[in-house]
Amino acid sequence: MEHRALSRLAAPAVAALLALTTGCTGDTVQGRPGASGLRDPYFPRAGNGGYQVDHYALDLDYDPADGQLHGTAVITARAEQGLSSFNLDFSGMNVEGVTVQGEGARYNRTGNELTVRPAEDLKKGEVFRTEIDYSGKPKPLEDPDGSKEGWITTEDGAVAVGEPVGSMTWFPGNHHPSDKASYDITFTVPRGYEAVSNGELRSRTEDADGRTVFAWHSPEPMASYLATAAIGPYKVTTGRTPSGTGLYSAVAPGEGTADTGPLARLPEMVEWGSGRFGPYPFATAGAIVVPAGTLGYALETQGRPVFPGAPAEEELVVHELAHQWFGDSVSPKSWKDMWLNEGFATYAEWLWAEDHGGPTAQEYFEAFEAGDTDVDKDADVAWDAFPPASPPGAGDISADPVYYGGAMVLHRIRQEVGDEKFFALVRGWAADHRHGNASTADFTAYAGASTGHDLKKVWDVWLYGKARPK
Ligand code: ARG
Ligand code: ZN
């Protein structure tokens, strides 16, 4: 911290000194490089300093036959300091050109950092437009826990999932959840292919070469890890929930349909979630079922979660849906806050069961305490291997304690404050931070203030505790 404060002081001091010695006005030396990372506790290089993105416009041309992607990213951002250069996170691909405010910009690449040096320094507060042209075959990344993320090719297409940093494999950006933005994602694909992404399908047209152009629009702020793409011969189903939220789902061949199995209850689950957590945060809902085996997990991509093969259990559909409130609308400030995503999504599974004739949340809580797999087949996992709010390393942010230990923290609050205050807290939290970001400290402060209970013991033992909670 001291170091940060010092360097913040140092820049103006150096500028003043330069102005004195060279006789220049402050203007000519006001820009300085934006930071190359946001110092996230688990992914320190993720994201970049000095600006905040308002909007991404991605124009992506993909050919499944050869795996080549041609992209243009137009990023509209606001400078938070004078900038002589700034960084974007980008992995692989060839950068063909960069302009800032329409003028050619110099750039260079080191690792996953693309450094852009505009022809003219950007002023603090300036809204500026950066265009990056790129091409190549995007490649997925391996997560610290060994799973795959990013752009993943399938037998007849591709899927993109980005938690935590995989989105940098298919578009340059400020890839940290603390910088949310609206998106327009347009895909051009060969005839016969569907291209599915987040938000609303604005148009589906044919270009001069007979290819299909899909224009997707996400007006609500989105963390970049929640951006998705699914290209392939999907079967699309559209509709509306009983209360009018739009539905758009896409299912890979051989994976059933959107109206069979657990997915068939999605419209009803959206209504249920709105009752439990407050209004559904997005204009559309749905699901993308990608070919089984494409990836080893489901992901709560915004408005339209990705499932690897048809989900076999209602709980999984409920889990990804609950993330739309917890994770997608209320997003973590850093990857340390992951339990706020996964604890709530797991607790939602327990609530769904409780409300639909299954075990109560109290029964789930007791089952996990006792390791009783009759109530939940996962009840014997090492949910207490570490405290939910302190994963030991980057490979642990999606580990069991974050999910089940996180859900147990929420249930402990419910035990302390009672149902009425607990559900008011859940709805109030989702409302207060709707379409924003929040941290663990924000949550503990809010929980205490909104319920009027001193929850320090719950935090000490269940959230941050080192020993097994007793
Ligand atoms: N957030 C996803 C979910 O709970 C799981 C992501 C798993 N990713 C990983 N690298 N293990 O639905
Ligand atoms: Zn989850």
Intertermini distance: 35 Å
Fraction of residues in H or I helices: 25-40%
Instruction: Give the tally of structural domains.
Output: 2
Q: What is the count of DSSP helices, taking H or I runs of 4+ residues?
A: 9
Describe this structure in words.
There is one protein chain. With 470 residues, this protein is of the alpha+beta class. It has two domains: 11-233, Immunoglobulin-like (Sandwich); 330-463, Neutral Protease, domain 2, CATH 1.10.390.10. The protein contains nine helices and 24 strands. The protein has helices at 2-22, 266-277, 314-322, 338-355, 361-370, 400-417, 419-432, 440-451, 456-463; strands spanning 32-33, 51-63, 68-79, 83-89, 94-100, 103-104, 106-110, 113-117, 127-136, 141-142, 148-154, 157-161, 181-189, 194-196, 200-206, 212-222, 229-232, 235-240, 246-251, 284-285, 288-290, 306-308, 330-332, 436-438. Strands 6-5-9-3-2-13-16-15 form an eight-stranded mixed beta sheet, with no helix packed on it. Strands 10-11-12-17-14 form a five-stranded antiparallel beta sheet, with no helix packed on it. A hairpin with a 5-residue loop joins β15 and β16 (212-222). Mean pLDDT is 94; it is low at 1-27. The protein binds arginine and zinc ion (ZN).
Layout of SSEs?
Elements: H1 2-22, E1 32-33, E2 51-63, E3 68-79, E4 83-89, E5 94-100, E6 103-104, E7 106-110, E8 113-117, E9 127-136, E10 141-142, E11 148-154, E12 157-161, E13 181-189, E14 194-196, E15 200-206, E16 212-222, E17 229-232, E18 235-240, E19 246-251, H2 266-277, E20 284-285, E21 288-290, E22 306-308, H3 314-322, E23 330-332, H4 338-355, H5 361-370, H6 400-417, H7 419-432, E24 436-438, H8 440-451, H9 456-463
Parallel strand pairs: 1-4, 2-13, 19-20, 19-21, 21-22, 23-24
Antiparallel strand pairs: 2-3, 3-9, 4-8, 5-6, 5-9, 7-8, 10-11, 11-12, 12-17, 13-16, 14-17, 15-16, 18-19
Helix pairs in contact: 2-3, 3-4, 4-6, 5-6, 6-7, 6-9, 7-8
